[in-house]
Structure formats: C-alpha cells, structure tokens
Design goal:
This protein is mainly β. It is 1% helix and 51% strand. The chain is flat, with a radius of gyration of 24 Å. The model is unreliable at 1-22 (pLDDT under 50).
C-alpha cells in the first residue's frame, strides 16, 4: 500500500480539508466504464521514469530486472539491457523510444527494436518529430559525435549541443548545434552555418510554419541573432529568441548590465532594469507580445504597449492567453498574497495558485484556475469557487472541446475523485497524476483518465449526459 499510494505524490497540491456543501448546478448523469490496461511492478519500477502517453490511454516505465533493466509498456516488459535511459512516448502515443547500454555499447531502441551500436547516446535522446513519424538522436563513435535521423547518420563533430537536435513543427526539417575545431555551428538539415564561439541555449528555433530558423551566436565582441543564415547586430547578451505564430515577426531580449530591452524585428524597445528570462511569449493569434520585466525592486507584465504592475512578484507563466488571444490571465503578488488578474481586473487574495495558473476554454469564453487559501484548495470556474478539497490534481483541470463541461481531479480523506461540472463522482481508485497523467476529454461528452487499483491500471471512460 505504501508504494501504491506514492504513485501520485508528485501529482498533488497537498492540503488538509473536506468537501463543503455548495450551491452547485444540477449534477450531470455520468455513465462510467473501465477497461484494464496493464499492471505495474511496484517492487521493481523506477518511479521517475513513469510516463503516460499524450492521449492518456497508455503508460510505460523503466524497471529493474535482477541486475539489469527493462522497459514495460502497458505492463508488458521488453528486452533486458545492462542500463537504459528513461523511455518516452511519441506525440500520438503509438510509438515509444529510449536509449540503452548492452555489453559496453550504447544504442537507441525505437518501438522495441534495437538500433546500431555506438559508444554513447546523447542525453535526451531519442527524440520524436511533432507528427511522430521521424526519430533523431545524438550518437558517439570514439570521441566524436553525429546526429542520426531516421537511421541515416550525419557528419562527425567534436561534440553536440545539449538540447539538440530539434525538429521543425511540420517534422520535415532538423537543426542542431555542433562543435568542430573548438568552433560552434548550427546545422540546419544538411547545411552547416557560420562558426561562433558559442550557441545560445534553447536555440535553434523554427518558425511555426517551419520555413524559418533562428539562433543566437556568440563572437569575440558579443551575441548576434542569426535568422535564416544572416547575423544581426551584436549585443552584450541575448535571450528568449522566438517567432510569432505566423513566422513573420522575430523577437528576443537584448541584455546589458542593469538594462534589458525587447527587440522586435530589429527594433529595440523600452529599457528595463531586468527581465524574466524565459517569459517572452506571443498570444496564439500573434497580436500580442508579452514578457515579465522589473525595475526598482518590482515586477510588471508587459503586453505590447501596456504594462501591468508594479507587483512584488509575478508568476513566470504569466500571462496565460486565451486561444484567440483576446483574453489574458496573470498571477501576481502584492502584500505577501497572490492575486489573479483576469482581463486587467484583480481578484481576491490567495496563498498560492496551481502550476500553469489558469486555462481557457477553446472559444476563450470560459476560464478555470485552482488556488489555495490556508491549507485548503479550491477550483474556480468563471469566478465561482468549488471546494474546498484536500488537494487538486496537478494539471488535471480541463474543458470539453465545446466548453460546455469542466473536469478536474481531487482528493478527500485520502481518496481520489473526478469532478465534472463541479460535482465529485465515485472513488474508482488512485487517479494517475504523474508522468503526464491527467483527465482529458476525448469528445464533447466523454472524459477519460487512468486509475490504479492495487497494481492494476485501468482506463476510465465517463459518458456525460
């Protein structure tokens, strides 16, 4: 029981409390069916390796097998290896891959099939393309490295950049950073770019239409953003290189000591004392560019020409945009309390928000977030709070595709429940909430998620009327 109950310990927002009676709407009728998916060997599994497929219907994990290791997919163990890297699913959940060691040699295992032997496989490899059709990984032969794409070996380099290779959004192109004779290059498809002293982390990046590519390159005199092979002006430092959704606008931060600015298509914007690295983002429609910036010990959220703040702190996930880009939610801190700022209007003070802050329905008309006050958690939907609960499953909140239904998972008294339209259902087992496990709608009136009863994993399907 101790091992079983730990499966979701990383998927909890822990708090004490009980469900309180509330003036909730009429509970929808829910028809529940379950189907066995597989089992988990809790005596030998490696918890950190556990992953749920993106569609939420399958799972895999690495496990010990004597002195060796195996990967189990839906409870079925594969080949035994001397050692292995954590397995990953492809985007559609039908494919999976991992690295392994056997007899002193390294290999990539794709869909259970062992690839050629090398002296090493790069950390974070293998990698699936966004459409799941292609696979890439870094491989070492002797002291030199190459990128292997769909089984085809690329040229040898002295080293590869961490976090690469990367696929373009359409999966047709590949880019990576590589070092040769102490100089760094970005290779796009088969073309090697100019030499630099270093390449910016989290680059190269492709535009959403996959036609353009950008990265940061360091010279003796500073950093330049290279777009489609052409280097721009030099800055002391740069970060957050990103394209707009239509690929026509390129933005990045330009950094100097105690001074930071956003640069959009080469035009330098207003200066701030500091910025939140990794906070720059475009709204889904591309109409708004947002980032977190700070001056005089305070923080603010900048969205185009509007600045919200100053605040004592800002959640780095801020802002969360609606799918149409028309609405925005911020998580801000004032007087040691957090507040949700929705469409410019500040909400009531709370002690904490759930990771990710908030989610919008597909049409952008509805919004949902989880928050903690004292030791109790609630979920607010369109401004109405449900709860309090002992905990809310991390990442479990979701809208149906048409926005008509809401769902999230909770615990009360140590038991898990799914909540639909504000109403908890029956306890069906431990809802899987680690490794990407979550509630999700597979249709306008169909909710699915995995639960564990004993060591058996079941797929739960709820039809909502």
């Amino acid at each position: 029981m101790r091992v079983r109950s730990s499966i979701l310990s990383l998927g909890l927002l822990t708090a004490a409390g009980m469900i309180a009676a509330a003036d909730e709407p009429v509970a929808p009728k829910r028809t529940v069916t379950t189907a066995k998916v597989g089992t988990i060997d809790f005596a030998n599994w490696i918890k950190k390796s556990f992953r749920v497929s993106p569609d939420g219907r399958h799972y895999l994990y690495a496990a010990k097998s004597g002195e060796k290791f195996v990967v189990a997919v839906d409870g079925k163990a594969g080949e035994v290896y001397d050692n292995l890297g954590w397995p990953v699913f492809g985007p559609d959940g039908t494919r999976w891959a991992h690295s392994a060691m056997q007899g002193g040699k390294a290999l990539a295992v794709i869909d259970g099939k062992a690839g050629p032997l090398y002296d090493g496989i790069a950390k974070g490899s293998p990698l699936f393309s966004p459409d799941g059709r292609r696979v890439a990984y870094g491989a070492r032969t002797g002291e030199r490295w190459r990128v292997v794409v769909d089984g085809v070996e690329g040229p040898l380099f002295d080293g590869l950049m961490a976090g690469t290779p990367v696929f373009s959004p359409d999966g047709k192109r590949v880019a990576y950073g590589a070092v040769l004779d102490k100089k760094w290059h970005v290779v796009v498809d088969t073309t090697r770019g100019p030499a630099f002293n270093g390449i910016l982390k989290r680059t190269p990046v492709f535009s959403p239409d996959s036609k353009r590519v950008a990265y940061g390159g360091r010279t003796e005199s500073g950093w330049a953003v290279v777009v489609d092979g052409k280097a721009g002006p030099l800055y002391p430092a740069i970060s957050d290189v990103l394209f707009s959704p239509d690929g026509k606008t390129l933005a990045h931060f330009a950094l100097k000591p105690k001074q930071a600015s956003m640069v959009v298509n080469g035009k330098v914007g207003k200066s701030f004392e500091r910025i939140g690295r990794g906070t720059a983002k475009f709204s889904p429609d591309g109409g708004r560019l947002a980032f977190v910036a700070g001056s005089k010990g305070k923080w603010q959220v900048v969205i185009n020409d509007d600045a919200f703040g100053p605040y004592d702190d800002v959640l780095r996930s801020s802002p969360v945009f609606s799918p149409d880009g028309a609405r925005a939610a911020l998580g801000v801190k004032k007087d040691d309390k957090w507040r949700l700022v929705l469409d410019g209007v500040e909400g009531e003070p709370v002690d904490a928000f759930a990771p990710g802050l908030a989610i919008f329905s597909a049409d952008g008309k509805r919004v949902m977030h989880a928050f903690r006050t004292g030791k109790k958690w609630n979920v607010a939907v369109d401004g109405k709070a449900f709860g309090p609960y002992d905990s809310v499953g991390t990442g479990s909140m979701c809208f149906s595709p048409d926005g008509a239904h809401t769902a999230w998972s909770i615990t009360v008294g140590g038991k898990w429940y799914s909540v639909v339209d504000g109403h908890p259902g029956k306890n069906l087992g431990t809802i899987v909430g680690i490794g990407g496990g979550r509630l999700q709608f597979s249709g306008p009136d169909t909710l699915e998620y995995l639960v564990v009863i004993g060591n058996v994993v079941h797929l739960v399907t709820e039809k909502i009327e």
